[in-house]
Amino acid sequence: MTAPPGVSGPTAVAMRKEETPETPRRKRGRSGVGGVKIPFWFVLPAVIGYAAVVLVPNLSGAVLAFTNWDGYTPEIDFVGLANFTRVLSDDNSLRAIGNTFILTIIVSLGQNVLGLLLALGLNTKVKTRMALRLVFFLPVVLTPIVVGYLWKYLLTPEGTLNQVLAAIGLENLQQDWLGNPDIALYSVCASIIWSGAGFSMVIFLAGLQGVPPELLEASAIDGAGPVRSTISIVLPLINGAIVVNLLLSVLGNLKQFDAVFSMTNGGPAGSTETMATIVYKTAFLYLEYPSALAQGVVLMIVVGVIGFIQYRVTQRKALA
Amino acid sequence: MSLKTPQRIAVGAVAALLGISLSACSGQTPAAPASEKATTGSFSIGTNHSPAVKTIVELFNKKYPDIKVDVRDMAQSYREVLGSQLAGGNAPDVVEIPGGGGNPISAKVAGQRNFYADLGKTEWAGSIPDIAKQQLETDKGKLVAVPMVVSSIGGIYNQNALDEVGLSAPKTWSEVLDFCGDAKAKGRVAYGLGLSDTWTTQLIPYALTSTLVYGPNQNFLEDQTSGKASFADSAWKDSMDKYLEMDKAGCFNASPVGTPYATVQDAIRSGNTLGTVSVASETANIAKGGPANLKLTYTAFPANDKAEDQYLPLSTSGFALNAKSSSNGAAATFIDFLAEPATQVAFGAAFGDAPAMPGEEKLTSEIALLAKEYLDKDHGTTWPDRLWPNATIQPKLFDGVQGMFIGSASVPDVLDKMDAAFKNAG
Amino acid sequence: MNRYTGRTLAIEIVLIAAGIIFLIPLYVLVSVALKDPEAQAGFLGFTWPLKFDNISTAWVESNMASGLLNSVLITVVSVALIIVFSSLAAYTLTRNTQHWSRGMFYLFLLGFLFPGQLAMLPLYLGFSSIGLVGNPLAVILIAVGGHMPFTIFLYAAFLRDLPRDYEEAAAIDGAKPLRTFLTIVFPLVRPVTGTVGILAALGIWNDFFTPLLYLSGSQSKTAPLAVYSFVGEYSANWPLVFSALITSIIPILVAYFLMQKFIMRGFAAGLKG
Q1: Per-residue pLDDT, C71
Q2: In this complex, do C231 and B76 lie within 8 Å of one another by their Cβ atoms?
Q3: What local confidence, expressed as pLDDT, does residue B101 receive?
Q4: Does B17 touch chain A (CB under 8 A)?
Q5: Is A72 within 8 Å of B391 when comparing Cβ atoms?
Q6: DSSP letter, residue B252
Q7: Is A16 a domain residue?
Q8: Global pTM exceeds 0.90
Q9: A52/A123 same-domain check
Q10: Helices marked H in chain C — which ranges?
Q11: Inside any domain, residue C189
């Protein structure tokens, strides 16, 4: 596999001789540019694996969302949109949808702004940049349930955060971080940002590699401040990294499950419930499988619409 | 709504894709496994991380060395995992299950779906206490599990800490409120409350309603079903008011909703918190991580001022035989072994709770004696959720209690929502 | 920009402060893990002497050694299959200009939209009907199929911009497609392979819901599953729980520190897009 590209040794010559008679057929069936005809079976392992564990189960789940199938009983009847009307008139589901949007917006913004700032800082001549890059990326490799348990410990009423606040004389900032329904969702967001900022940072750093330093120096000489030169020169040049980062964080957080599940389990009183956790609970705890499937379909549609919009917007940007 | 033909075909196709065998699920399961007992062979047992299972499997293998037991520990997400396995037809031969309904593996829900074999014809079926039988029979009267423990909810106290501050466990409701005030005066928390873990929200309501609702009116559930009674218009309201009254009296730690239950356990071990209201087996869990000399006291939690009117909320759990394994003689042998008084007592001791069928065996633990006392005077009630008609009522209670403690819900709100969920019974 | 100025120093100080804040949770993780359960916790403090017993107790009690072994096995096999399957597929889909290849590409992109929960029970029933529950193969198959959309997307983005001269030269030389792919294309997409490998390895290693559903109660528990079971049993004992957390992440931390240069480079190379 280490052979340099374009190698043509004796074997290649021998193969050329063997295959000469086939050339006309290859031309007729040619589909790739430059006569590279790739057999169909190359794509089969991926298609079969994907269809078996993603496409078919999800689509059958979506079809079953229009039935009363409860996962167990043999009788299956179509019930039309009944599951959907029930779900969309249920306060808990609606609040979960709202929470999911809030969480996605805060985390996507927070993680990417923080990641970008860290990347810009590390893209300078700071002496500790290698060590710091390591530090900021460290939370990314931690198992989400580990992060969840850890943050739960930090944020209890007598937890580390409140102790730190007391120690530096900021007692009045102490909060019941996970117990106060007005704050809990933001606390969860903070833990997700902590574990994801390093991820965004690395992608931004990669993007910044492609920005020529002379360009920045030139703008500094022109008298542009760091903020202005960043916004007007750097950001357009790392558009690709921004698109990838936003796409991953938005789509990922619309389906956010692990952090909420391990930190608050949707509480207190449903104030941190997301769509992914409520689908899970409805199916496995409330035993309302038809409603759970309908919630899953709603989630799928939301992700689909937002993903499509994002795709279109970034496509247009790329063309402009 | 019935199916038109094309729709039926579509559903059939989906079902086929999923590998759901439509006929297999609908067949009635054969009964009476106990007749084909064996002393050799092997079987698997599914457990929810209960250390007691290890104990009884060792005992079993002493008696039946030629039967191989494969213990499958599924830990925290037991009900989700086992529920899926039952639906998929590959659950272990013997499974640990909770009594009553409300979750996919419980005696009533899974029993109704014929996932568990009928144990009604076994020799020991007649000696099950009524309160256990009520929870382990399906609505059609099929017994699906051998009960192992009757779990009560009561007050757990750090006796060392009580001695230190010169207090004792309260025996009446007024004493509870005094106890809270006294504890506070000594700089301690009377009752630890860790509502961040939602399952703990229900403990005090169940303890109070046992004496205030279900003890005085044994037919409360039937009355609810027939529409004669409701949560909102019953002593459930008094019970929930008392829950808040305890909060006002300073019984609990600050910010209970943000506090994980583990923090409460730690605080009891250290003595900063004197006690909590929890299930009896929690005494063993609290003791496990505490100092070696830690002594815990367990008593019924009072709801009024007449000691003789107190009731004890009880639930049962046990082991069911997978209906698909009803021809497995080794598994049937194990089920019968579980019902023997000696096994029951050994299991109860390892589990930290009262054995369900101790027979003539001598009981020594405080917990077992308390349960026996209340069973003997017929003052036990079943945990309400075990008999509720659907699984959506309990989450309303969980969310509601959290809401009450953060001030976003009032007692009538919570009970109204529970009533609405009760009526939705499908 | 190329000199270390006063501004650079200011940036450095701010970044170091941020780094310290970032490390606080991990510092707490270690300090709690080494805590004596009977001693009072000080402010951000360790209790002395450090109790390394906690770590060894947790290691033995949680059966972490076998959990780690299973995790390694599942991760390595899955990542290898993901790389092979998705690079082959992306190569085919980007080099073929027929309609079906475009359609199929979008079919793969559809996978971005599905929330996992929708498929949970249907998938489980499917696997149990072919007897794969309890078998690590089920987890591997789910990981491989589930990673196809994202990895094919990454490979395809890279391949579209890749000059085709070498491939065409090889084709004119008469090399068979598979040989062309293995000797020419695959080495050229190495940056994406690095990215895909690292992302997939992290995702599979850290996933706990799929192993939970398919491997609970079997002999093939993964490391996160061992952590989860252990937390269930010792939920009240933070030092032991955190010790178990540490034992479960040490291997991945070691791997991360050893390979960090490669990870940083490989991770981002395929994402420059």
Answers
A1: 93
A2: yes
A3: 85
A4: yes
A5: no
A6: B
A7: no
A8: no
A9: no
A10: 6-33, 53-61, 64-95, 99-110, 116-129, 136-160, 165-172, 177-180, 186-188, 190-206, 209-215, 223-233, 238-269
A11: yes
